[in-house]
Design goal:
- Helices cover 44% and strands 11% of the residues.
- It contains twelve helices and ten strands.
- The chain has a four-stranded parallel β-sheet with strand order 2-1-3-4, with helices on both faces. It has a two-stranded antiparallel ribbon with strand order 5-6. A two-stranded parallel sheet has the order 7-8.
């Protein structure tokens, strides 16, 4: 996939006019200015959005995330505390594309009284989305070049939500500066991931995972993806799926398969047993992060750290060599 353009001072408008309109429309529907706190309160549904919002907002907004490590956004239901948090929010950021399926009615209810932005739907045009039956695959953050665009959507939504009477200009400038730096970091991370996955021997360049959350990753980084179950964890893997994947692993000599942090490993273990019954051998690679970030306070608890971990785990387990980190990414990792 071609490298996207570097960030501009107006990240959404540089992509397409309709993106700016989508964010602006959502923010016009926000609560009256008098009802807001001096520092905007932002609620994100998933960590991949919340982490980017926190990186870009700095002290200019209070960012809370509903779903923590190990949470499954496909099945997550809002608690009473979640509803209260969104009631007090000046801005709600969610993925969309049917990611938060069980939160759909709650999000629809807040859309008429609180600024809400479906980050993935705004950032990724229909032409760039991957179809999955009658819906689109919502896991767009697995392609860093697409999440680079999502960061622009988040940056503009944050800037538009700033209502601090005295610090509005300085906060807008600060968010734009942080977005420029973060955008460059994501571009370097994307290029590094391309090089890492390309080092895996072509015959073994197949990523087998518990559920099909890596289609965007596969398209962006040139690796075939086989999910034992579908894009949503609401579905169960059938015996035929297990046999199909086991046959593929045996025939291609794929040395490892992976389970995600939010998934029960029983289907992965069933595939391993089926491979062994055929006379082959495979192992479970390091746990991957797909629908949720890792533990708070750890690198994997951030979006950049999540991608670094996944790429390293996949590349190493499948026989590739992890390249040296670009300077910007190495500097980021040194913070930890």
């Amino acid at each position: 996939m071609p490298r996207p353009e570097a960030a501009s001072s107006s990240p959404i408008r540089s992509r397409a006019p309709w993106l700016a309109v989508a964010v602006a429309t959502a923010l016009i529907m926000a609560a009256p200015a008098g009802a807001r706190a001096a520092t905007p309160r932002v609620v994100a549904t998933v960590g991949m959005i919340g982490d980017v919002a926190s990186e870009l907002a700095g002290s200019c907004a209070q960012v809370s995330t509903l779903m923590g490590p190990g949470s499954d956004p496909h099945l997550y239901r809002a608690s009473a505390g979640d509803v209260r948090l969104m009631e007090r929010a000046d801005l709600v950021l969610y993925g969309g594309l049917h990611l938060e399926a069980s939160l759909a009615r709650v999000l629809e209810g807040f859309a008429s009284r609180t600024a809400t932005v479906a980050v993935s739907e705004v950032a990724v045009s229909p032409a760039e989305r991957i179809a999955a039956g009658s819906v689109y695959d919502p896991h767009v953050w697995m392609d860093v070049s697409l999440w680079h665009a999502a960061a622009g959507v988040i940056a503009e939504a944050l800037a538009a939500a700033i209502v601090d009477a005295g610090d509005e200009d300085s906060c807008t400038e600060a968010i734009a500066a942080r977005h420029a730096d973060y955008s460059a970091l994501l571009l370097d991370l994307h290029d590094w991931a391309v090089a890492a996955v390309a080092s895996v021997p072509e015959r073994q360049r197949i990523l087998v995972t518990a559920h099909d959350a890596f289609a965007y990753f596969g398209r962006a980084y040139g690796i075939k993806v086989e999910g034992i179950q579908g894009i949503s964890t609401e579905t169960e893997a059938a015996v035929a799926d297990i046999r199909r994947v086991a046959a593929l692993m045996f025939d291609r000599g794929i040395p490892a398969l992976f389970v995600e942090s939010t998934i029960n490993p029983r289907t992965v273990n069933a595939v391993l047993e089926a491979v062994e019954q055929r006379g082959g051998h495979a192992s479970i690679g390091s746990e991957l992060y797909a629908d949720a970030l890792g533990a708070e306070g750890e690198p994997e608890g951030t979006y950049v750290g999540m991608i670094l971990h996944n790429v390293r785990a996949i590349t190493t387990a499948l026989g590739g060599r992890v390249p040296e980190l670009p300077a910007s990414v190495a500097t980021w990792e040194a913070r930890w």
